Amino acid sequence: MAKDVIVACDFSSREQVLGFLDRFEGQSRKPFVKIGMELFYGAGPEIVREIKRRGHKIFLDLKLHDIPNTVRKTMKVLAGLDVDMTNLHAAGTIEMMRAAIEGLTREDGTRPVLIAVTQLTSTSEERMRSELLIDAPLPEVVRKYASNAREAGLDGVVCSPLEASLVKDACGADFLTVTPGVRFADAGKDDQVRITTPERARQIGSDYIVVGRPVTAAEDPVAAYKRCVKEFLNEEI
Ligand code: C5P
Predict the structure, then answer these.
(1) Ligand 1: which of 89, 179, 210 to mutate, judged by most atoms within 8 Å of the beta carbon?
(2) Is the pTM of this model over 0.85?
(3) Tens of pLDDT along 74-133?
(4) Please, what is the Cα angle at 18 between 75 and 186, to 5 degrees?
(5) Which end of the chain, N or C, is surrounded by fewer C-beta atoms within 10 Å?
(6) CATH number of the domain bearing residue 112
């Protein structure tokens, strides 16, 4: 898949998300949409089908982490929802990630893009050491988990834009990096700490940027989305 801007639709109801997406009706380009746990658990799988029918690509961000058999069977269900991208925790081991690929692969051999979460950006090195008993430095953990994902046959990882080059270095240029934490240069940070602009994300080598509030909370979400596309993809829409 080509590089793209993914809009994180962090709404809790069907009405809110569809009301938001209505604004993009009639536009030449429909945003690639991220559906997270809040909306999926609140509105149910039908919301995925409904947004898909409107012509959006979908990244279903459910971050699976369970025994390989359960993940295999769950991924089969998600492949049936016809999502374009989904994810899991690399901490579930290579065996779990291989099972996920098996479950996700349809009879015709096609499957959604599968990416791994390495370490959540909310986990500090200190907590990793004291609570999870992981002594290695955080970048080393990210590098190892990304390599494990690559070995299992996954397509890429979600990571901080600041880790994108480390991941490409470890796993190759074709291994996808999906990066949240994006803000416009002239805007506030909200609760994000390590942020980057869409333009900088392009320079760093992100394949997909995940943008939430800069678009969803903008006075003119369509204009904000167009600005992201212009800055990240260098395309006027
Ligand atoms: O509103 P904002 O642009 O901060 O939204 C970013 C999106 O990316 C949210 O859906 C958030 O959960 C997700 N995300 C993140 N940092 C990560 C992983 C996911 O911000 N490390």
Answers:
(1) 210
(2) yes
(3) 999 999 999 999 999 999 999 999 999 999 999 999 999 999 999 888 888 999 999 999
(4) 95
(5) C
(6) 3.20.20.70
